[in-house]
Amino acid sequence: MRATKPLAALFAAFLVVTAGVSFAGAVAADAPLDVAANQQLDTGDAVVSVSQDGTAVADATVTVETEAPYAGNGTYATDANGTITLPNPNETVTANLTVTKSGQQTVETVELVPLNDSLAVNVTANDDRSATVSVTQYGTDVENATVNVTADGNYSGTGEYETDENGTVTLPAPNETVTVDVTATADDETAETTATLEAEGEADEPMNFGQRVSSFVHGLLGDEDREGGIGQQVSEFAKENNPGKGNGLDKETGRPDHAGDKDKDKDTGKPAHAGGPDKTDDGDNEDDPDAQSTDEDEDEEEDSGNGNAGNGNGNGNAGSNPGNGNGNAKGR
Question: Which domain of life, per UniProt (predicted)?
Fold first, then answer.
């Protein structure tokens, strides 16, 4: 009888453990399917992983579909590690992954990028006017990548660099605003970008139209997610921001904001602060025929009254001596 008690206790413990395992399995079966895709840095192949509650799911059905042609389209079954491998695409494609297991279904959309387009380089301006160059491949920081920097002006930051463990290098602040071309190389892959580095105090100055277009173009070229050409976007930006369209002009006068004093007297055409006689005095005489005629009469009278009227000779008898009198007639 004494031996049966330990056996009974062991059996009870076994039942508890078994029930716990069964309960955990039931919870896992109800958990959603998790899908992830990671492209390999050396081949560009994409490894798709299916898991459930943190556990790899074997024998899950994975259907791959893309709109663009892709050799990886089709239906797959995950291996014991819950993975399938898709080939490196010839061009960037958007793939819809439909995963099914035991009545559960999950749809995941991923972007697959060819290996020769997988390297990316970006330039970010810092608060102190220096710049940080970041090199990544499939979203992963690339250490020991070569970064070459050239500039269109006098810039001390030109030259060759090597990325650190974070995939970055730091460029010094420029003494004058410059445009830099940055080329990153890792293994056999290359990526390029262009950026404008602004000198101290110049960032707050308003850009002219040409500078704004140039900055817009550089931003488009540096966008690694950009698809297709940029001609249409640049054209629309130029039309929308062209100063000839009226941007930057005074709404009342149509004059540029940077032009001179716009508070001119509408009658005289002079700025309000200008001195001297008003042009309206002359303008009033020109518009009033009577006033003009009166002015002309007064001018004529003044002309006729000026000068010498001549010499007048008068003969008179004043005793026995004749007298000559000279008289000057002075006009009023």
Answer: Archaea
